[in-house]
Amino acid sequence: MQGKTPRRRTLRRQGAAHRGRHATGLRLSRPRGRARLATVSANETPARHQPPTATHDSAFLKACRREPVPHTPVWFMRQAGRSLPEYRKVREGIPMLESCTRPELVTEITLQPVRRHDVDAAIYYSDIVVPLKAIGIDLDIKPGVGPVVERPVRSRADLARLRDLTPADVPYVTEAIGLLTRELGATPLIGFAGAPFTLASYLVEGAPSRTYENAKAMMYGDPELWADLLDRLADITAAFLKVQIEAGASAVQLFDSWAGALAPADYRRSVLPASAKVFQAVAGYGVPRIHFGVGTGELLGLMGEAGADVVGVDWRVPLDEAVRRVGPGKALQGNLDPAVLFAPREAVEAKTREVLDAAAGLEGHVFNLGHGVMPSTDPDALTRLVEYVHTQTAR
């Protein structure tokens, strides 16, 4: 296995200190200017007149581009969050949505798992409803419930409330990513957004749902209104991703958390066009685009068809089967069951070995969980998992 870069060694040492005490200070340097971005596809090198970024040769970006890697890169969805005591300390007394608008706090939280776990990529700390809040939708994240919308979107007149999002609506995102890219150095930063279907589900239902009866009623009963809603959300989502990329994000992930509630025919007809519009809108930046959903085993091919460079796979479908469903020309991300981390170390390593063996024939593989880190996960189990994957896959 190749040695770590000086920047990652520094972050690792900082992480050791954080494991011994809570992080309470947020003294960070000011952000740099916006990075210049090459307008090429994710599987091409930057244009000659624009030198590669510091992150270009990272294991994570190489895997996304389906290039040879020194080891299988690892990061975790929800790696920055409730499983870390240092996160709970700095978030104490601060509402979720407010924490997403404080650049120095966002920076600290995003860096915490990189310091502690030595993951190969950071993911920007935010929430999928942040762009909706930024354009004036009256919503809040209720503890123990999730996003709650004061006035659900149920009619054509409600579409008027979904105005365009501009960089001026989210200046804290640009500032935080500037701070982060300076601190991360050669470690890539992943930006993200909620996919149109998942955002529509929250907006139409008004709160998290297990049945999506209102959203599906609109989709089946008023397909024109539904299409217009998702098209509007695609524009908002694309604008939010563009802000992150232009500020310095090295890759982006589109979370379609609830797409698994759909049949393939409904997904193709009523959802895929909006997701494809988002991916197409950011294609010119040349950063890898990741597409992830939960319970989407029957949709994997369609999700790849929407335009992603990397398709995320949850734990229900082994990666050697997932690659058959997705088809060639895509890297895969995943897919250890998050619950495995509660088992003894030997069991975690055995299940991780199964994932790595299933990924042996992939064009590109980014190791991740099949969903987010659970709040009660032992952080040390994640640190050991990263080290195990790095060691086992060192080339």
How would you sum up this structure, described in words?
The chain is built from 16 helices and nine strands. By secondary structure, the protein is an alpha/beta fold. It has a single domain, classed as Alpha-Beta Barrel (TIM Barrel), CATH 3.20.20.210. The strands form two sheets. The protein has a seven-stranded parallel β-sheet with strand order 1-4-5-6-7-8-9. A two-stranded antiparallel ribbon has the order 2-3. The relative contact order is 0.14.
Question: What's the layout of helices and strands?
Answer:
Elements (H helix, E strand, L loop, with lengths): L5 H15 L38 H6 L20 H7 L4 H4 L3 H15 L4 E2 L6 H5 L4 E4 L3 E4 L21 H14 L4 E6 L1 H10 L7 H9 L1 H25 L3 E6 L7 H7 L1 H11 L6 E5 L6 H6 L4 E3 L6 H8 L4 E6 L8 H14 L6 E5 L9 H15 L2
Parallel strand pairs: 1-4, 4-5, 5-6, 6-7, 7-8, 8-9
Antiparallel strand pairs: 2-3
What's this entry about, in short?
The protein is α/β, with parallel strands linked by helices and 395 residues long. It contains 16 helices and nine strands.
The coarse overall form would be: globular
Assign the structural class, choosing from mainly alpha, mainly beta, alpha/beta, alpha+beta, or little secondary structure.
Answer: alpha/beta
Helical content stands at: 40-55%
- Identify low-pLDDT runs: 1-7, 13-25, 27-50
SSE order in H/E notation? Answer: HHHHHEHEEHEHHHEHHEHEHEHEH
Oligomer classification: single chain
- The strands making up the biggest β-sheet line up spatially as 1-4-5-6-7-8-9
List keywords for this structure.
seven-stranded parallel sheet; 395 residues; 10% strand; 16 helices; disordered N terminus; two-stranded antiparallel sheet; TIM Barrel; alpha/beta; 9 strands
